[in-house]
Design brief:
Layout lengths: L1 E5 L2 E7 L9 E5 L9 H10 L1 H10 L7 E5 L7 E5 L11 H18 L4 E4 L11 H18 L5 E6 L2 H15 L1
Parallel strand pairs: 2-7, 3-5, 3-6, 6-7
Antiparallel strand pairs: 1-2, 4-5
Helix pairs in contact: 3-4, 4-5
Amino acid sequence: MLKIVMNDSTLELIEGDITLQDTDAIVNAANTSLLGGGGVDGAIHRAGGPEILEECKKIGGCPTGEARITTGGNLKARYVIHTVGPVYRGGEKNEQTHLENAYRNSLIVASDNTIKSISFPSISTGAYGYPIDKAAKIALHTVINYLKNHRDIHLVRFVLFDKSTYNAYEKALDECKK
């Protein structure tokens, strides 16, 4: 685990399973329908149970870069913040802006709902094909900038699925600190 403290907030990197996190909220790397899918999305829906899907159906979808909130269902986290990252198409289709927005809007939803701790996966780096080294820099830069100006979120944890993803985020965080 890697941990840095900024103002009143802590940023952590861990390798693990996002569905097991005990933060107030976890972030789901969802698709625009919010009706479940593969990867992180499927794992969260399976672990959280049908209550999450029922709330997602009522919401009716989520555009790329935006975020919506539901119950955490059977998860340890009380809430799931669903955000839709971009499908990577070479970097020329506003992917960076959409990825920044996915992280920032998730944090805004957290702040708006008085959520003090939140866990993120690596958004868009699985089936959506975003290069992990670029995505990690965008994720960390966006979160760090948000925390500099918003002291209401006390813990942001990046829960990274495997060692290579963790290593990419660790390297990106080292670069952010310079």
